[in-house]
């Protein structure tokens, strides 16, 4: 079957439908799943069936935390390379963060500029987060009308000057604008606290950086988030939770009725502080990768449903900003590139801890699409859902090599490691966009997915 061609049906012995994995044929019509039938069903004449044998067929991954950085910082990434990497990783939808593009997605005008830049460059479907910064509260509702999935803010310096962090006053102003809209506010949940230690020690030692961003920074930030969430009853979401210590606060707020969700990332689940070599700044991110005991607590919380979803937080940059020559953790850009490898990263660790294929769908597709109100069209296999499918071999191993990385900059802490789970093909709205290392010649992704919110009519 040629790349870019329309797929009418996909047959497999392992199709993930709800909590079941069973033989089935997925019938596709006009880019949507038409019906799902038992394996022995004979498909009509002229209907081309893609028979993938024993390979797993499941909903395409929805990665709702990706920094594409276009316009303005296309030397870091860009829609063309980011969405290609996504397709190669079985990711059929990305949601782009409001930074580190220049300008950031903090006004309606800036949002339109980003949409113009994305046009004709997306190999997978793309949605967008807006940003909350000091003084832009009157831009929020116009951006909701224009189709943003929700908003992100920082409680600490963001790392770039054009996206300043918010104060309590800014947060209350934003929450008032978001009440009744059905939208969601995402928080980079670290807060400068008095106990925070200054970076003192050898700058090439990872422990020097780790000690400068202790767990208490996340705990105190999340305390602020839970109070706001309970007060305003606006959906709130904690991005990239790295510390297990705030989990009790989160549970308590949810039990009290807070509409609060939380994500963690592949790097917090796959990497731990004890194994980070001196000078290996490709491991730096904020909040930081913590110790192995903390990591096991994150896995337990994921299993218990206390953490809702897993994302990449793909945050690339150019090699010079990573300070690879000096290995200085205190000066290097914080961000890890993993958009292409999220599925095998997660599966390689999760399978050893008793997670099933249905858990992969729930944590990487369903819950992520719910967060951005795309769950009526993305994240599940069922009639009338977009025919976004990833076909993959969960038993097959591969080594991450530089030549197979489709991100613009090939800097990643995962270089040379062996993972389990090979993506064979990716189908986007019924079209074959990726197969065994090759891509559809033209980008077929939509560059603006419109969220479908329950409360939209009240706006």
UniProtKB/TrEMBL annotation:
Catalytic activity field: (S)-allantoin + H2O = allantoate + H(+)
Entry-linked InterPro entries: Allantoinase (IPR017593), Amidohydro-rel (IPR006680), DHOase/Allantoinase_Hydrolase (IPR050138), Metal-dep_hydrolase_composite (IPR011059), Metal_Hydrolase (IPR032466)
Cofactor: Zn(2+)
The enzyme's E.C. designation: 3.5.2.5
Top EC category: hydrolase
Keyword list, A-Z: Hydrolase, Metal-binding, Zinc
Domain Amidohydrolase-related: 56-433
Pathway(s) per entry: Nitrogen metabolism; (S)-allantoin degradation; allantoate from (S)-allantoin: step 1/1
Molecular function terms from GO: allantoinase activity; cobalt ion binding; zinc ion binding
Record GO biological process: allantoin catabolic process; purine nucleobase catabolic process
Subunit-structure text: Homotetramer.
GO CC terms, sorted: cytoplasm
Family listed: Belongs to the metallo-dependent hydrolases superfamily. Allantoinase family.
Protein name as catalogued: allantoinase
């Amino acid at each position: 079957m040629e790349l870019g061609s329309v797929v009418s049906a996909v047959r497999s012995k392992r199709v993930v439908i709800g909590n079941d994995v069973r033989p089935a044929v997925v019938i596709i019509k006009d880019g949507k799943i038409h019906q799902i039938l038992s394996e022995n069903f004979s498909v009509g004449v002229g209907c081309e069936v893609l028979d993938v044998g024993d390979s797993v067929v499941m909903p395409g991954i929805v990665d709702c935390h990706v920094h594409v950085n276009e316009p303005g910082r296309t030397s870091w990434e860009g829609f063309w390379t980011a969405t290609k990497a996504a397709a190669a990783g079985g990711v059929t939808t990305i949601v782009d963060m409001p930074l580190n593009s220049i300008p950031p997605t903090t006004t309606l005008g800036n949002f339109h500029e980003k949409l113009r830049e994305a046009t004709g460059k997306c190999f997978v479907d793309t949605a967008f987060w807006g940003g909350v910064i000091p003084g832009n509260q009157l831009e929020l509702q116009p951006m909701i009308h224009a189709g943003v999935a929700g908003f992100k803010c920082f409680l600490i310096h963001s790392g770039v000057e054009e996206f300043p962090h918010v104060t309590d006053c800014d947060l209350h102003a934003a929450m008032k604008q978001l009440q009744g809209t059905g939208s969601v506010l995402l928080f980079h949940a670290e807060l400068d606290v008095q106990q925070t230690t200054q970076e003192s020690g050898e700058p090439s030692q990872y422990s020097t950086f780790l000690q400068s961003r202790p767990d208490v920074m996340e705990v105190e930030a999340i305390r602020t988030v839970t109070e706001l969430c309970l007060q305003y009853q606006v959906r709130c979401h904690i991005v990239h939770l790295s510390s297990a210590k705030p989990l009790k606060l989160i549970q308590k707020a949810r039990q009290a009725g807070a509409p609060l969700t939380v994500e963690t990332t592949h790097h917090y689940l796959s990497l731990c502080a004890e194994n980070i070599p001196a000078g290996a700044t490709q491991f730096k991110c904020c909040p930081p990768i913590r110790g192995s005991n903390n990591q096991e607590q994150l896995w337990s919380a994921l299993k218990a449903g206390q953490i809702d979803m897993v994302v990449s937080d793909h945050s690339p940059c150019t090699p010079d900003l990573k300070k690879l020559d000096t290995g200085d953790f205190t000066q290097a850009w914080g961000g890890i590139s993993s958009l292409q490898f999220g599925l095998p990263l997660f599966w390689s660790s999760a399978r050893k801890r008793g997670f099933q294929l249905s858990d992969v769908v729930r944590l990487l597709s369903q819950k992520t699409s719910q967060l951005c109100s795309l769950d009526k069209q993305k994240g599940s296999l069922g009639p009338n859902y977009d025919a976004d499918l990833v076909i993959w071999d969960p038993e097959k191993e591969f080594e991450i090599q530089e030549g197979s990385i489709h991100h613009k900059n090939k800097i990643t802490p995962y270089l040379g490691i062996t993972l389990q789970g090979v993506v064979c093909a990716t189908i986007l709205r019924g079209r074959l966009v990726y197969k065994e290392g090759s891509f559809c010649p033209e980008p077929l992704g939509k560059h603006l997915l419109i969220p479908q919110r329950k409360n939209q009519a009240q706006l």
